[in-house]
# Entry
Amino acid sequence: MNTTKKLKILVTNQKGGVGKSSLSTNLAAYFAIEKDLQTVLVDFDRQATSSQWVVHAKPHPKLRAESVSQVIHGGNRLSLFSARSTIRDAAAKSDVVITDITWSPVIGPDILDVFDLVLIPTSLSELELLSTIGLLRDLRMALTKSGAPKLVLCPNKVHPFQRKFNGMAAQRFPVPFLLAPPITQSKAFEVLHQKDFVIRAGDDDTQARFRQFGQAIEQAAAFVPSSLSAPQRQAAAAPTEAMRVLHERTQNAPANSPVVQPAIEEIPSIIRAKPATI
Ligand SMILES: Nc1ncnc2c1ncn2[C@@H]1O[C@H](COP(=O)(O)OP(=O)(O)O)[C@@H](O)[C@H]1O
Ligand SMILES: [Mg+2]
# Structure
């Protein structure tokens, strides 16, 4: 149960190189710089890529980072407790908390309870999709129980001319999910890695696309799954403070209501993928 009214986002995958740090850092910059929301990036990664990134980039008054890699890797109740406290404490001091974790089974799925959204960056290569599906299978219980965070798959490093999404449509997913607009493979992400944010220093196209991604994540935060019962929907729709702010700020944006779209040609915005029958 979330008791604090803040937006708490987990960015995770067990694979390295999929863009966890790129996504979490740039998304944190999006909320801080574009949305003027107090944002904390909590970095549980041993490499501390994300927190170093924020340290190396030109400071922004709304953005700060915390590196706490030692907290989560104990794999026991105490480390779970400390990890949750770290996130709750960060949320108490900010509007948005973004957490970067390289997933490992030792962490355990209970940590997911503290988040509103779970973002899983993945490329669309078959190998990486299969690995991502494996992770979803492991997290299935934690992602489908009542009060579970909403799952958003975030295709990353998508080739600019890769319009078809056949690789994904061919897979069966063990849990329903929201699909973020794809983040294309772009030089800006490489050049700015650990130096600056695409929203501030990227080329126009990369900026515009990342902005679209950020807006989709805001929509995901406000999204109410149609599978919920009426009272559940009502409870889920009660806006938390940060979400309300985000919602109000995006009210004038074009309506992009999630739709069920089994055959995907192009991903203009968040869609709700068909849950797999298993
Ligand atoms: N959309 C993208 N386009 C081009 N390069 C990317 C993109 N996203 C990530 N990268 C690159 O991939 C590498 C791994 O990214 P990173 O965010 O550190 O992954 P992770 O945290 O999952 O290990 C980095 O060199 C980064 O610049
Ligand atoms: Mg990383």
